[in-house]
Write a structure and sequence with these properties.
This protein is of the alpha/beta class and 558 residues long. The chain is built from 23 helices and 14 strands. The strands form three sheets. It has a seven-stranded parallel sheet. The chain starts with a helix and ends with a helix. The chain binds one DNA strand of 29 nucleotides through α2, α3, α6 and α8. InterPro entries: DNA-dir_DNA_pol_X (IPR002054), DNA_pol_lamdba_lyase_dom_sf (IPR027421), HHH_MUS81 (IPR010996), NT_sf (IPR043519), PHP_phosphatase (IPR050243), Pol/His_phosphatase_N (IPR003141), Pol/histidinol_Pase-like (IPR016195), PolX-like (IPR022311). GO terms for molecular function: DNA binding; DNA-directed DNA polymerase activity; exonuclease activity; phosphoric ester hydrolase activity; zinc ion binding.
Length: 558
DNA sequence: GCCGTTTTCGGCCCGACTGTTTTCAGTCG
């Protein structure tokens, strides 16, 4: 069992114990163990059992729980408490904005045991009767439920990716035994690298279409049901899977149509005429267009750009020369500054790392006060000597406070090579307030990059509303780079606004926000959405070479 | 349930903000 699973199990246990009003200090130590386990730089399963209780925050009791999990994959105490809690009440833990205390009242005082009932109660204005609940809380809960329901059956690209690749391999190996010369490809949202996936679509171009169709219902990994247009199923997790079987001769046309999006495909085919087509390239050629990458096929402005041969050369993973906005053990990261740097240098072959630990207001994340900023800078200077020509840039993720100011005085801010300014608190502002707050941060002369502009968490939290045009225009006017936070939950700035930012001359930066060496690989998701947004390497800050970005940071210094 | 011992049990305790209160509890990052 991985640390992450152990950590989640402990958090779950602590939440359930809160719902059953157990000793708050006991709960706290279990919740604390969740944080600790989540941040361990080694795998618990590789640790000798008798050393587990030596870990800080984990004593005899928790070590026993962890060992039980490692050895049996289960925890009796957890199973028991799950048995004493209605399923719907447990589900409520997934609603943003209410915690165990409020859920306890909803459950015990109001007698509500499911999310459906809770939603109904909001509509009936019944929540305000309970102590600690008012109109605003009721409205918040109602909105949060609606957001959660809308996320049902929808998944992050990154959640689907592993399953999709495994399935693809299974189908492709199976096809060799059934129809050895067939063609195969992903289509739909997945091929277009959409940030949210609610349907995984796969197309088979079969030589012997009847045979493949006959056999497909016996394909073991899925229990497929033959529908009118495709073979369908829903995975245990709730993801719909559709497999289309077409004649090999029609494959490229059908693949193109099913890749979509429908509006894009329809417009291109109107220009290209009827097939057959030998490949997708031919479709675009016959339409008088340059080839349009799947990521761009969203019926935005890509067809006009292709007509004028003005499509951007989309950025790729290989274009990235460095990684900005990452954390270390100085704040809430798992790996040390040196480990993070060496990983970038030796494993990722990057030229530079920007380290941006949390600023002092983020106490929960061990944010750096002025003295520790100075200490970190000393360590960076030493490491830069040791690792040269690789370079660590002195950055900070400075909290944007509620009034829009940054978290340090100008004297401190000027000691950084660059500053990522982001919002972490007071996330419930309306559009006018949130926009004004960001504008003030953008206008701060020390702000280099605006971090995750809306604070959204895909499928989980909407993020505060902002006036995108005002924000982007201000970034253009103040030479502030906008982050594409590459965490698959964020992907913020949204790709639908990349084009506007690029038109205004704003640079974008694909930042993994890594809290451990593994986290650097999230960059991949940032690149995918940046491609959807139409980003080319020359407009991406961390595609600059070390020399170019050094000059850039120097030019921005006050 | 963990920690740190005055070695056997008492203390443990982010801060800001919001909404619901009438002085505070719950939630968040």
């Amino acid at each position: 069992m991985e640390n992450k699973t152990i950590a989640r199990t402990l958090r779950f246990l602590s939440q359930l114990m809160e719902l059953h009003e157990e000793n708050p200090f006991k709960i706290k130590s279990i919740a604390n163990a969740y944080f600790k386990v989540d941040k361990l730089p080694f795998a618990l399963k590789d640790k000798p059992i008798n050393e587990i209780d030596q870990i800080e925050g984990i004593g005899k009791g928790l070590a026993a729980k962890i060992v039980e999990l490692l050895q049996t994959g289960e925890l009796k105490e957890l199973n028991d408490i799950i048995g004493q809690t209605p399923e719907g009440v447990i589900e409520m833990l997934g609603i943003k904005g209410i915690g165990p205390k409020k859920i306890l009242i909803i459950w015990r005082t109001l007698g509500i045991e499911s999310i459906g009932e809770l939603y109904y109660a909001c509509n009936e204005n019944r929540l305000i009767e309970a102590k600690g609940f008012g109109l605003k809380t009721q409205e918040e809960i109602k909105n949060a439920i609606e957001f959660k329901l809308a996320a049902n059956g929808r998944f992050l690209f990154a959640q689907v990716e592993g399953y999709a690749n495994t399935l693809f391999t299974q189908i492709s190996e199976w096809l060799i035994t059934i129809d050895n010369h067939s063609l195969l490809g992903f289509a739909g949202q997945y091929r277009r690298a959409c940030e949210i996936i609610d349907e995984l679509e796969i197309v088979i171009g079969a030589e012997n279409i009847e045979h493949v169709q006959d056999q497909l219902t016996f394909f073991k990994p899925l229990s497929l049901i033959a529908g009118e247009e495709a073979f369908m199923t829903t995975t245990e997790a709730g993801l719909r899977v559709k497999i289309f079987v077409v004649n090999k001769s029609d494959f490229y046309l059908e693949w193109f149509k099913l890749t979509g999006n429908p509006e894009h495909a329809e417009k291109v085919l109107k220009l290209a005429g009827d097939g057959p087509f030998a490949n997708e390239n031919e479709i675009y050629t016959k339409a008088g267009l340059s080839f349009i990458e799947p990521e761009l096929r969203e019926d935005f402005d890509e067809i006009e750009l292709a007509k004028a041969d003005k499509l951007p050369v989309l950025i790729t993973d290989k274009d990235l020369k460095g990684s900005l906005h990452n954390h270390s053990t100085w704040s809430d990261g798992v790996h040390t500054l040196e480990q993070m740097a060496v990983y970038c240098k030796d494993v990722l072959n990057l030229e530079y790392l920007g380290i941006c630990d949390h600023s002092k207001t983020a106490v929960y994340a061990k944010g750096l006060n002025e003295q520790r900023v100075f200490g970190q800078h000393q360590e960076i200077d030493e490491l830069n000597q040791k690792l040269a020509p690789f370079k660590i840039f002195k950055g900070i993720e400075s909290d944007i406070l509620s009034d829009g100011s940054l978290d340090y005085s100008d004297d401190v801010l000027k000691t950084f090579d660059f500053v990522v300014a982001s919002v972490h608190s007071n996330l419930r502002m309306d559009e006018a307030k949130a926009t004004a707050r960001l504008l003030k941060a953008i206008e701060n002369p020390y702000t280099t990059i605006l971090g995750h502009p809306t604070g959204r968490l895909l499928l989980s939290r909407a993020g505060y509303p902002i006036d995108y045009k005002k924000i982007i225009d201000a970034c253009a006017a103040n030479q502030v780079v906008i982050e594409i936070n590459a965490n698959p939950l964020r992907l913020d700035l949204d790709w639908r606004w990349h084009r506007y930012a690029l038109e205004k001359g704003v640079l974008l930066s694909i930042n993994p926000d890594a809290h451990r060496t593994d986290g650097f690989h999230d960059t991949r998701y940032g690149v995918l959405v940046a491609r959807k947004g139409g980003l080319s390497a020359d407009k991406c800050l961390n595609a600059f070479s070390l020399e170019e970005i050094s000059k850039y940071f120097d030019s921005r210094k006050r």
